[in-house]
Amino acid sequence: MTGRPQQLAGLLHVVLGDQPAARYDCHRCGTTEGPVTGPRPVASFVEHVRAVHAGRCPARATT
Ligand SMILES: [Zn+2]
User: Fold this and answer.
1) In 27, 35, 50, 63, which residue has its Cα 20 to 30 A from 13's Cα atom?
2) Residue 30 to residue 37: CA distance in whole angstroms
3) How far is CA 48 from CA 9, 22, 35, 38, in A?
4) pTM for the structure as a whole
5) Residue 34 and residue 43 in contact, taking contact as beta carbons nearer than 8 Å
6) Range of the structural domain that residue 57 is part of
């Protein structure tokens, strides 16, 4: 597998099912956000990561 440019420089893990869960590992600043569990928290967490972490990522601010 070759790397592709991504909007998020990290891994967003989302598990769906009876107990949805999500976690985000930022490869730039090394921060792990989450995990959160539950349908509503997971949905808002994904939005949070995309909207908030991308803007406040400390590694991003240095470039
Ligand atoms: Zn980051």
Assistant:
1) 63
2) 21
3) 15, 11, 13, 15
4) 0.73
5) no
6) 10-61
Q: Let me know if residue 2 belongs to a domain.
A: no
31-63 tens-digit pLDDT: 999 999 999 999 999 998 988 887 888 886 555
DSSP element (H, E) containing 13:
strand 10-15
Q: Tell me whether residue 40 is in a domain.
A: yes
Q: Does 48 map to a domain?
A: yes
Question: Is 53 part of a structural domain of the chain?
Answer: yes
Q: How far is the CA of 22 from the centre of ligand 1 (A)?
A: 16
CA of residue 34 to ligand 1 center, whole Å: 13
51 alpha carbon – ligand 1 mean position (Å): 12
Number of domains observed in the structure of the chain: 1
Cα 29 to averaged position of ligand 1 atoms, centre (Å): 4
